[in-house]
Description:
Blueprint: E1 3-7, H1 24-34, E2 38-40, H2 47-56, E3 57-59, E4 65-67, E5 85-98, E6 101-111, H3 114-125, E7 137-138, H4 142-152, E8 157-160, H5 180-184, E9 193-195, H6 202-206, E10 215-217, E11 232-236, H7 241-250, E12 254-259, E13 270-272, E14 277-279, H8 281-286, H9 302-309, E15 323-326, H10 330-338, H11 345-357, H12 361-366, H13 370-377, H14 379-390, E16 394-396, E17 405-407, H15 411-424, E18 425-427, E19 432-434
Parallel strand pairs: 1-2, 2-5, 5-7, 9-10, 12-15
Antiparallel strand pairs: 1-11, 3-4, 5-6, 6-8, 11-12, 13-14, 16-17, 18-19
Helix pairs in contact: 2-3, 10-11, 10-14, 13-14
Amino acid sequence: xxxxxxxxxxxxxxxxxxxxxxxxxxxxxxxxxxxxxxxxxxxxxxxxxxxxxxxxxxxxxxxxxxxxxxxxxxxxxxxxxxxxxxxxxxxxxxxxxxxxxxxxxxxxxxxxxxxxxxxxxxxxxxxxxxxxxxxxxxxxxxxxxxxxxxxxxxxxxxxxxxxxxxxxxxxxxxxxxxxxxxxxxxxxxxxxxxxxxxxxxxxxxxxxxxxxxxxxxxxxxxxxxxxxxxxxxxxxxxxxxxxxxxxxxxxxxxxxxxxxxxxxxxxxxxxxxxxxxxxxxxxxxxxxxxxxxxxxxxxxxxxxxxxxxxxxxxxxxxxxxxxxxxxxxxxxxxxxxxxxxxxxxxxxxxxxxxxxxxxxxxxxxxxxxxxxxxxxxxxxxxxxxxxxxxxxxxxxxxxxxxxxxxxxxxxxxxxxxxxxxxxxxxxxxxxxxxxxxxxxxxxxxxxxxxxxxxxxxxxxxxxxxxxxxx
Length: 470
């Protein structure tokens, strides 16, 4: 069965707070290193970015685009690898007043061509400024934005972005709605998919029966190329705009998602960052939403908002639910396993060795043999990947704009583990093979939460674990 991984929500160098490296050449290079087959271009409303895309991309005839051959950078990745293709995409921020309340909703739009992007961008430029930011802010009702998009491109995919983020999303605690119909009204039936965002995972969304009719997609929302694929989608079939459209509209060909640990998202729990206060929802309710340190307002997180709207108990799995896997970026796994920083030379060297000797990042994290990982990057990294696959990680949850922290190996364990693992290795003629590092039989083990951190409900994969990309 042919599968491809797609990361549909990204940004260009023209968006605020993004890397200057968010250009087609670098995005395509990182997609090969990650193992991603389809990448969103991001920012199609920005005229300079569209001009750059027209200059550097070539249409494939399938509604997707490839980078011109002479612009491709060499990427030392084992195996035949993927040839990434681009899908025209962009995120728009709508800030407007509706039903007596200011709404701030971000929406992701996917289009079948740059020509459609040109038409829509011209319409929007008559409404607001699309030149100052790759993700423009428009005083336009989300329902009216959807209407404009559909008039110009009937086969456009309109996806409410990171739907639980407190300040800028469909269900956001401070500026969103309680029901999707309140946002899109008579055009709600043209919404086929919703983006879960980094701070929620599929089981959290399964608690709302009203979401059963939608495909729940996950994307990186990357502001730098290295963050591509931290969340992504898995599709069945040949990559094309039509195959993606049909998969999301009719739920045929959509296989599942690759997820961040939701606790690692920067709005998973409630809290007040200036006072370093992190709260479970019940603790916030007990204090009336007031910070116990300064009496300021606690920022309500994603878990709290999900619980407020949920009509099902935790752990409910609806019919037709898709499988998923939860990962941590490979450099973070290596760094935690070695007790080093992500940017250290040792971590970067091991990362490059893994790509060169084994294959792209998502393959290393999900499928590569642990013995091969040990040969390329050492037994500690292999043990770190094993623990990740089993869900044996420690989490300090994110809150109020602060990313959570994931540890697969505590610093206090590293010396002891290194001695034990090295002592138990055996020579097989090709390098050190760690006989005691066993391949995990399942990806659905409870998480290890330190006593000092509020306990989170453990993310669980469906029976059989997450899908395996190729």
